[in-house]
Write a structure and sequence with these properties.
This protein has 151 residues and is α+β, with helices and mostly antiparallel strands. The protein contains three helices and nine strands; from the N terminus they run αβαββββββαββ.
Amino acid sequence: MKKKNLYTLAVLLILIIGCKSGGVSTQYRDDFTSVSESEKNAFLKQQNADGTNRSVLILTQGFKGEKITAKQGEKSVYSSYPITNLNTKLADYFSFSNESTLIIHDQFSKKDIAIPADKAQKYKFIYLMKEYKDDTADFSITYSNTLRPLK
C-alpha cells in the first residue's frame, strides 16, 4: 500500500513539475485527415489495441534517435531510439494499457511526460511531438480519437 501511495505521489509531482515548467503543451483534436474506418480497425488489431482498455501512443515529429522509454508502474512498456521520418512525420508507435498512468522519459532532455489514465481512457490515439529550442526540448501532446494517415 505504501508503495502505491509513493508511486501516486511521484506521478502527481511529475504532473505538477511538468505543468509549471511549460515544457509540455496539451491539445484535444479530432479535426485532421483520418484513415478509413477499416484501416483504423486493422491498425488497432495489429497493435493489439482494439479493446477499450488499450490506447496507442504515436511519436511524431522531432525525434532524432535519443533514447525514449515508457513505463507503467515498474513495468517497462517501450524502450527505443526513434527517429522521425521526414516524409511521414512519424517516428514510432506502441499500444499501452490505458488503465494506469504512462510515464514517458526522454533521455536527451531528462524530462518525464505523464499520460494520465483518465485521459488515455477517453482517447484512442495520443500523439507526442518534440520541439527543440536551443539546448532544451519541449513536448506537445495531442489527444484524439482520429488516426491520421501513417504512410
